[in-house]
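User: Please look over both lines:
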Amino acid sequence: FLLVRLCVTQLNESYFSPVTDCTAVLLLVTCIEQHLEMGRKLLAAGQLAEALSHYHSAVEGDSKNYLTYYKRAAVFLAMGKSKSALPDLTRAIELKPDFLAARIQRGNILLKQGNIQEAREDFQAVVKLPHCPKFACFLSFSEVLNQLQRAEELEELQEEAHQASHRGDYVAAIQVLDRAIEISPWDPESRELRAECYIRLGEPRKAILDLTPAARLLNDNRAAFLKLSRLLYDLGEHHGSLSEIRECLKLDQDDKECFAHYKQVKKLSKQLDSAEELISEQQYQEAIEKYDSVMRTEPNIPFYTTKAKERICFCLVKIKQAEEALDMCSEAHQREPQNIHILRDRAEAYILLQDYEKAVEDYQEAREFDQENQEIREGLERAQKLLKISRKRDYYKILGVSRTANKQEIIKAYRKLAQQWHPDNFQSEAEKKEAEKKFIDIASAKEVLTDPEMRQKFDSGEDPLDPENQQGGGGGGGNWPFGFNPFESGSNFHFKFNFN
């Protein structure tokens, strides 16, 4: 590359002698030939970027050689850069109007871009070219005639698609456009029309698949970038929406519509990201406040309201505000009945409220929507265990405390109930037996709920005092936590409670 620079510099210096100029020309020709050869080898090896660099040098060294432009265009096409190839093909044709291969190649590109008239002119020019080698002409004419027919077909398809769209037959328009886009995949107009038809049919994601390339097929297609950003925004894909609207502003930072939408997307996206970061840091109350802000920022797009309610529901469960969580989860469930995360969180709210039957129902419903989800499966098993235990003994209900009660609240409830149900407070034998049973349950509940390990087992659906769950046996005390019943007939054990 530096050698070519030197050659060009030498040719541009007028003070060199004729002998030096001739030497420079010979050196330049050699340089160009070397670059063309290296470009050819690298292109064959698939090293396109390196090949392109050599063809750049060859073109710079000899701007009058139509073949160097044509070969560089071939590299651009191999790299998928048809828009960059077009100027080189045009320059090659300007330098050599009867260059058949360049005209065919340019016509093919123009046809794929949907430029029917320009493509037709290139193909017709090839047909009219004189002094063409017989065999080459036969192959070229066959290809060109086929392309001319495709151009005619494309023109008819475009007209038919527009008519179908105007009369509101969007399904028919899409079917026609499918064939049109097969012929001209780089035509932004056909893709935008098909995208509009998909939008009318309520299929925005298919519209996005067309708008994404269409926005980039023109040098300035701000309208497509704006439409694409709005579609993504409505679907809740705020990061994608922000990315596309920034592309619009790169084309014109003063575009009023793009800038107004950009401000809205940026504000909402920042709030959503901040809320999720707070949740990851377990700052649930702050996250709730942030999601409240989300609903105020965007009250008109259903996705964001539903998302905010879903996440607020999750946070309320985490901070054990069961009643509020249940209300919020139910609102979110009405909006999105098949959302397994909402069903999971509402089930957890029901567990906090000790309504295990409904917790099981929600987990079962979530399981129907996602059979493979391990979290849902484990949650269902735990809810079923809790339901089974609750039908035997629920230690929280025995003491009359919530599942979120702390140790101090549990001991306070225990003392009150133990004093109330102490057997010595009753006279008749039947009342004493009933009181003994109650007293044993109260003592068992206190033992389990004040021991962190036992309480965790109970909360996970296992009764640590259930003989079925014990290993190694130990005494015949039944359900009495200390292995014996002090109220049993014949027991020599006596004790006295002092209540503060």
